[in-house]
Model the fold of this input.
Amino acid sequence: MNILLSGFGGFMGREVIKLADANYMNANVVCGVDAFFKGESNVPCFNSFNDVNVKCDLIIDFSFHTVVKDLLEYAVKNGIPTVIATTGHTEEEKTIIKEASAKIPVFYAANYSIGVSLLVNLAKITAKTMVGADIEIIEAHHNRKVDAPSGTALMIYEGIKEVLPNSFAVHGRSGASKRQTGEIGIHALRMGNVVGEHQVIVSTNNQTITLKHEAHNRALFAEGAIVAGDFLLKQGAGLYGMKDLLKD
Ligand SMILES: NC(=O)c1ccc[n+]([C@@H]2O[C@H](COP(=O)([O-])OP(=O)(O)OC[C@H]3O[C@@H](n4cnc5c(N)ncnc54)[C@H](O)[C@@H]3O)[C@@H](O)[C@H]2O)c1
Done:
């Protein structure tokens, strides 16, 4: 697949290029768009979508939220499926994304980690199947992380809540705090240089299942965006997300 990479010079853009150089899923970056890129590159990198004169089959976007308007104008005009991995869009920009998806295939997700999406699915199945089990979520991140618990831990919790609507979160425990029915314990560890670990423990009196995802680096998001692109090339116009990717 021949990719136009928006955010060509950024951290995630470079991760996509590394994967394409290693021929991951036949990804081939044919050009980039990046308003601020001034470095050397093997393929042309344009400052604006108006300047692009290279044909591609797919657009992958890891740039800045304000780029989405020009990007989708170009994608719709040329009928190019688009993976939007950039985050932080305003409501107005989200409407632009929705409108474009009526005309071309658009993939839009806040977290492109295939492993995390799988973990949420597995946690839901396990929580639903192990009737009456005690459920605990433990996450670990580096000592520089500001927010706790992580957005991913909350995503896992929300996923479980979809199948067990009466459950509720308890953040950490201390003192007299006996477990209540429906309680989901959420615990945040902050230590060293940990990129991101999430564990879901589902335990009855007779058995325990532990599900664990470990992120080794941020390349996993680039990997996920390329997998989403490969999926998108086989779809018609519409708005797709990680749930669609894991259906088959
Ligand atoms: N969905 C996910 O799973 C996921 C994972 C990681 C990062 N992200 C998102 O991807 C985006 C990029 O992340 P990053 O770490 O690579 O950031 P970055 O700052 O390293 O790179 C962004 C790139 O976009 C370019 N850019 C910025 N403003 C622009 C503009 N107005 N026009 C054109 N190009 C512009 C910059 O020059 C830069 O090269 C962020 O929104 C980030 O939150 C999403």
